[in-house]
């Protein structure tokens, strides 16, 4: 098997699905802060914050187009320090994978499998994700090609079916910015730092066909996901009201539950969840791939595959034991807790690497 | 040829009954035809064990040089053999060969015999391999080379309708069991020297001819090299049909999805070859393998091209929908009745629940029983002779189905689901693919029974990963869908107009991406204008 290559389109699909699944999963703009009916503005604001972070994440990768972060970290700050910094990336992948899986489990259990043990749901998602990760990034991206239309049509259908109710209840969106910008900014923190997911780009850029365009792809994916987030937030606020939306655990799915188009289409919620799970799968498998690939490069292994199994088990255990119930998950996603945590996952390693890179550049200039 | 040499025996020993096959191989490899006719004859007789179908016809040239004609009964064309005999016995009287220059004699005879192919053969294996295909060997005293004349005239099946792949329109030719007839069916469609047909023999005992046809300069050389190496790797004693070859050269032997397309329609093979793919012919099999194959190929029928483009596209999309139904419908039924009653509209739910009243089995068992029953019926229907085949459908559908519902053993809803699934399954044009789908259906039903819709999702994720990880001779199995190649969509999920199909499929046809000039969209006469139209037509 030669070197695996994925196209920019596939990268876009992966990034888009990865972000959309989490941000519409529990609509952090609404549930994590007090932005209330202005949450959709938070969604717009979060795009700019996230775009900045994407620049930080991707910028360095573009300067080393054929190296993963683990490789260029070792080049920039030495072998052992580089490996130590790379461990942060692997940790981030592990934590994000576990959280993704946990959100999935939480949605399913509160949604409609209330009697199924959580570990069972997590187990199946971990198995599916790790098999895909074991098959390689090419297989994951082909699966993304295949599942993206299903995923997108789920989004479009859910939002389309919401249009009549939305038009009826759009008063819920008023007043706009009545309480100033503070709540709006607070609401945008969590969706911004969820961009830590895009740390996978540090591992995936060398596998893309045109690494130079990775930044553009990432920003487009972010823009697409943000547009979906804005629309979903608008719909949820209008239909459920800001107050109920705030207090619901997974507002988007609760909103879909209330939709009632005709006699025949009474509840499309299971189908929405069905397609949403595809997105979770793409995210989880990509994180597992990147995590095991990164770990393999840290350990100096040729093949990452032997590490997929252990990593899958660890992320599964993390997913079960990190959060005892859905509310703990929500508590974690408070701006005060998850904000600094996820931000440090991005800023600390990337900051070290950027500084090293800057010093390198200055040195080189000095020599010349 | 690799021969297992277990026992060493001294050369020179005659062939005895005690000699095992491998010893015989070795023995025969040592034997070459000698100069003495009688000794050669003795060896050949001993080797073939006086088999009753091998005929030895003695004759003599100029009444002094004896010779023998060897052929196999009813494999030959009688007229050609008679012609050879006439030449040998009568025409040779004209040539002066009193001297012992046998080379001259042989050349003279070769010039006189008027069959289209004569070879000089010294080795006994090739001699037999040729006789077994209808050639006639001429052995002459004092000559160590046998003249093998092509006199093939055995009976082959006529070219008939491909019975397993019927179409409403389009050609009615189907492949037959004879390799040469099959390759000729391709050759008469693609009449350029660039159509190359490579051949080789596989199988120590069967010596099966295997040939593969491709367009030189269009088919990927790397893929061809891979195919050659996979074929050369095969070391077996028998190849009986293309199924053997298929299992030897497939990429992923443990997948239930066929990674090579088996077809008996020349038009399918032709169109594949024109896209840069390869047709693999196996002697003795009316099924030709097409490789590399991708999953959408299995859901296409030549009929799509003989119909209008829009109708063709409609049918193709319909087929995808039918496949989804045949794979997922029972699992959705089980999941929605067991776990997600809210998915069904209330009226439908009430109906289903009412019909399940008094049924003694859980819904999964019910589905499983009916599905298995249907599989048994289908299998029985295939094995039965055509004359009593319909009886099965009467017994199966009317008696069993009706009685089972009347007796309250199964609910009518399940019968509807199973019947719908079965009918949807029949739309898959390629039989091997419909088997694969059928097997996945059982897995999905089981997952749905255990985990509901969530189990179906799990199954779909595993299936997606599996299908996306498959490759057939280096090409992704889900080709134009995953990886997504928009350009190929116009002749894949859809079937757009032939004039718009400018490009070949991207991956197999990458060496020559364009198959025709663009902008050939037809239209009404351009010079038409109203002034000329005096009569108001």
Properties at a glance:
heterodimer, A: 368 residues, mainly alpha, Amino acid/polyamine transporter I, globular, B: 537 residues, alpha+beta, 3 domains, five-stranded antiparallel beta sheet, 17 helices, 42% helix, disordered N terminus
In short:
The complex is a heterodimer of chains A (368) and B (537). Chain A has 368 residues and is mainly α.
Structure explained in plain terms:
The complex is a heterodimer of chains A (368) and B (537). Chain A is built from 17 helices and no strands. Chain A is mainly α. In chain A, helix 4 (69-77) packs antiparallel against helix 5 (79-111). The longest helix of chain A has 33 residues, at 79-111. The N and C termini of chain A lie far apart (42 Å). Chain B is an alpha+beta fold and 537 residues long. Helix content of chain B is 42%, strand content 11%. In chain B, the strands form three sheets. Chain B has a five-stranded antiparallel beta sheet with strand order 1-2-4-5-3, with helices on both faces. A five-stranded antiparallel beta sheet of chain B has the order 6-7-9-10-8, with helices on both faces. In chain B, strands 11-12 form a two-stranded antiparallel ribbon. Mean pLDDT of chain B is 86; it is low at 1-11. Chains A and B meet through helix 6, helix 7 and helix 14 of A and helix 17 of B.
Q: Could you name the ranges of chain B where pLDDT drops below 50 across 5 or more consecutive residues?
A: 1-11
Structural class of chain B: alpha+beta
Share of residues in strands of chain B: 5-15%
Distance between the termini of chain B: 76 Å
Q: Write down how many β-strands of chain A occur, each being a DSSP E stretch of 2 or more residues.
A: 0
Oligomer: heterodimer
Number of DSSP helical runs of chain A: 17
Order of helices and strands of chain B: HHEEHHEHEEHEEHHEHEEHHHHHHHHEE
Assess the beta-strand content of chain A as a share of residues.
Answer: under 5%
Name the largest protein-protein interface in this structure.
A-B, 38 and 29 residues
Q: Count of DSSP helices of chain B? A: 17
User: Could you name the CATH homologous superfamily of chain A?
Assistant: Amino acid/polyamine transporter I
What is the architecture of chain A at the second tier of CATH?
A: Up-down Bundle
Tally of individual domains of chain A = 1
At CATH level 3, the topology of chain A is: Amino acid/polyamine transporter I
* Unreliable spans of chain A: none
Strand line-up across the major sheet of chain B: 1-2-4-5-3
């Amino acid at each position: 098997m030669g070197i695996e290559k994925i196209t920019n389109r596939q990268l876009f699909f992966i990034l888009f699905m990865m972000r959309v699944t989490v941000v519409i999963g529990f609509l952090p703009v609404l549930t994590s802060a007090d932005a209330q009916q202005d949450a959709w503005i938070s969604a717009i604001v979060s795009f700019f914050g996230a775009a900045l972070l994407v620049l930080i994440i991707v910028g360095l990768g573009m300067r080393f187009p054929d190296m993963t972060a683990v490789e260029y970290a070792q080049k920039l700050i030495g072998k052992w320090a580089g490996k130590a910094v790379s461990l942060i990336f692997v940790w981030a992948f592990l934590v994000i994978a576990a959280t993704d899986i946990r959100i999935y489990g939480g949605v399913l259990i509160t949604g409609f499998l209330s009697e199924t043990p959580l570990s069972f749901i997590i187990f199946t998602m971990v198995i599916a994700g790790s098999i895909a990760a074991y098959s390689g990034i090419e297989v994951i991206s082909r699966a993304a090609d295949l599942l993206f239309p299903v995923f997108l049509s789920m989004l479009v259908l859910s939002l389309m079916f919401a249009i009549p109710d939305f038009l009826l209840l759009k008063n819920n969106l008023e007043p706009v910015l009545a309480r100033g910008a503070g709540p709006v900014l607070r609401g945008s923190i969590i969706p911004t730092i969820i961009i830590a997911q895009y740390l996978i780009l540090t591992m995936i850029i060398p596998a893309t066909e045109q690494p130079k365009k990775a930044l553009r792809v990432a920003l487009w994916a972010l823009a697409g996901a943000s547009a979906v987030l804005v629309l979903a937030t608008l719909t949820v606020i209008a239909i459920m009201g800001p107050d109920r939306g705030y207090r619901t655990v997974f507002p988007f799915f609760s909103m879909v539950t209330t939709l009632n188009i005709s006699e025949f289409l009474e509840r499309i919620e299971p189908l929405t969840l069905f397609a949403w799970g595809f997105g979770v799968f793409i995210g989880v498998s990509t994180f597992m791939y990147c995590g095991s690939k990164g770990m393999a490069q840290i350990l100096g292994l040729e093949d990452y595959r032997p590490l997929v199994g252990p990593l899958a088990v660890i992320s599964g255990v993390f997913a079960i034991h990190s959060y005892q119930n859905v509310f703990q998950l929500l508590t974690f996603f408070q701006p005060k807790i998850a904000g600094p945590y996820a931000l440090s996952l991005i800023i600390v390693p990337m900051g070290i690497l950027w500084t090293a890179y800057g010093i390198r550049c200055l040195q080189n200039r000095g020599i010349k | 040829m690799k021969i297992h040499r277990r026992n060493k025996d001294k050369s020179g020993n005659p062939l005895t009954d005690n000699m095992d096959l491998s010893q015989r191989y070795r023995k025969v490899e040592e034997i070459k035809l000698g100069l003495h006719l009688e000794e050669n004859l003795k060896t050949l007789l001993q080797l073939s064990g006086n088999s009753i179908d091998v005929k030895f016809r003695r004759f003599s040239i100029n009444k002094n040089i004896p010779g023998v004609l060897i052929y196999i009964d009813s494999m030959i064309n009688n007229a050609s053999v008679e012609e050879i005999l006439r030449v040998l016995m009568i025409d040779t009287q004209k040539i002066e060969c009193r001297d012992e220059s046998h080379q001259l004699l042989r050349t003279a005879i070769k010039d006189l015999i008027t069959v289209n192919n004569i070879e000089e053969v010294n080795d006994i294996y090739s001699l037999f391999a040729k006789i077994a295909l209808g050639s006639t060997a001429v052995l002459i005293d004092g000559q160590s080379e046998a003249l093998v004349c092509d006199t093939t005239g055995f009976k082959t099946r006529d070219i008939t309708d491909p019975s397993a792949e019927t179409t409403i329109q389009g050609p009615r030719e189907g492949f037959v069991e004879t390799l040469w007839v099959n390759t000729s069916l391709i050759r008469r469609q693609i009449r350029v020297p660039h159509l190359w047909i490579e051949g080789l023999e596989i199988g120590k005992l069967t010596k099966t001819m295997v040939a593969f046809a491709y367009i030189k300069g269009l088919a990927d050389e790397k893929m061809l090299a891979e195919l050659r190496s996979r074929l050369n790797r095969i070391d077996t004693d028998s190849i009986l049909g293309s199924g053997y070859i298929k299992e030897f050269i497939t990429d992923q032997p443990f997948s239930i999805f066929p990674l090579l397309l088996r077809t008996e329609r020349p038009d399918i093979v032709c169109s594949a070859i024109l896209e840069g793919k390869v047709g693999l012919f196996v002697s003795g099999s009316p099924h030709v393998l097409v490789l590399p194959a991708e999953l959408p190929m299995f859901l296409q029928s030549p009929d799509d091209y003989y119909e209008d483009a829009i109708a063709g596209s409609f049918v193709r999309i319909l087929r995808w929908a039918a496949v989804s139904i045949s794979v997922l419908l029972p699992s959705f039924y089980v999941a929605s009745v067991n776990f997600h009653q809210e998915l069904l509209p209330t009226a439908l739910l009430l109906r289903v629940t009412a019909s399940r009243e008094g049924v003694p089995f859980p819904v999964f068992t019910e589905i499983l029983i009916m599905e298995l029953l249907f599989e048994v019926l289908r299998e029985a229907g295939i094995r039965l002779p055509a004359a009593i085949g319909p009886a099965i459908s009467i017994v199966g559908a009317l008696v069993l189905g009706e009685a089972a519902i009347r007796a309250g053993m199964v609910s009518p809803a399940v019968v509807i689901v199973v019947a719908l699934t079965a009918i949807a399954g029949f739309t898959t044009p390629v039989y091997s693919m419909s088997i694969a789908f059928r097997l996945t259906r059982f897995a999905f039903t089981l997952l749905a029974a255990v985990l509901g819709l969530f189990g179906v999702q799990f199954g779909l994720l595993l299936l997606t990963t599996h299908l996306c990880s498959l490759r057939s001779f280096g090409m992704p199995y889900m080709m134009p869908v995953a990886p997504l190649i928009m350009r190929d969509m116009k002749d894949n999920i859809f079937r757009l107009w032939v004039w718009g199909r400018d490009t070949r499929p991207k991956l197999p046809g990458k060496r020559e991406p364009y198959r025709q000039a663009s902008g050939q969209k037809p239209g009404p006469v351009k010079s038409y204008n109203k002034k000329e139209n005096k009569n108001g037509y």
